Amino acid sequence: MAITQAMCSSFKAELMLAVHDFRPAGQTGASTFKLALYTSSAAIDANTTAYTSSNEVSTSGTNYTAGGNALTNLGVTTVDTSSSAGTGYTNFSTLTFSNASFTARGALIYNTTPKSNSNANTTLTNAAVCILDFGADKTASNGDFSIIFPSATNTTAIIRIS
Amino acid sequence: MSDMSLVFGVDVGNVMVQTTYNRGFTPEEIAERALDKIVHVGSNAHPAIREQAEAFKDNIRAVLVYYMNEAVRSHNVTLVSKFQKAGYPELVKILDT
Q: Where are the domains of chain B?
């Protein structure tokens, strides 16, 4: 069992199927992305294709809601540093679970509103985007649990295509 | 025969997790987060540029902390008013601890 940070392979394919819409949160057509938290017992990695409740942080007495919380997407930026090295990237605002009492080792970002079906034309549900490994167990007790996204640049943003 | 395929990379960045015990975040802690969004110094930046950016960060940090404390103080005034209007003046003492 392990949490391995990765961009989900299914997500890479779904980019070519117009499944995910990273326009800024609130804009018409934008997908809704959520972040779910997991304990160190979870087995999530590049092969994860959709949200799973297996080994998700408990909802009992933790103030954590199954499925996690919605993210605020900041839209897509393009940096064309040269004709061959341009990068498109997107980022999210800091997400805070308030009055939290739980321990988490990693997270899954997933899309609750996929825009189209799979390549086999089957309906996608809660399509996985990427896996985040916190590096160690992180614990909040009657406090705040904040996931702070990296600076929105072409070399650091949370999702980058180069 | 030349290779005409195009390869691109999809990368995931690294998040940072901050937690608290029996409290929320302080203005100083939140100001630090804001600073990282306002001023980002690239790893390959010239030392002179980096020095200037760090000095700018220090100035901005002080301003952010000052006004965040003002916001907290002002919000507490709003809470005092709400507690008193709701008939719970004893809760005001909690805000002073």
A: 27-95
